[in-house]
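Q: Convert this sequence to structure tokens.
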Amino acid sequence: MAGTSKTNWKRISKESVFKTRIFDLHLEKSECVRTGAVQDFYYIHCYDWVNVIAVTPENSLVMIRQFRHGSGNLEIEVPGGGIDRQDVDPVAGGARELLEETGYRGENGRIIGKVCPNPALQNNLCFTVMFDNCAKVSEPQLEDTEEIETELVSMPELDKLVTGGHIRHGLVLNAIHFFEIERRKN
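A:
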């Protein structure tokens, strides 16, 4: 059953084996209660993340293009990033990321979905936050290591980007899925 907290595992030990500014790698030794088997499990302890669906009054999405070192490619994504300690909640984190990366601000911020990015290896959540009536209010406030291009994408263009395989980031596709569900509700 999804979301259940019942487990057949007993933690024997846990230690942090590697730390970075973005994540910590943990080693957990656990015993399967059913069989008695003992196994080492590695997982990544991360901040929670946020993806932002920012819709303009003209019904376009504010999207970004950004080089990603993991894929080695310029990827088409929605704005987003880590939820910082100073963010009071995912909506605040989403508003901050949207403004920093694109210079856009919106109204009626709300969470429209959340997922475990990879529960086999990570402990964090990725929230999808949506804003309406987004408008450009400033220039982006990029970090020294960010190179981001902002573009507005119409709904027909969005469909083509998804079906054509141009949007390849799994969590971005997930955010777009939550957005489609939200659109069907209205």
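The chain has a mean pLDDT of 95.
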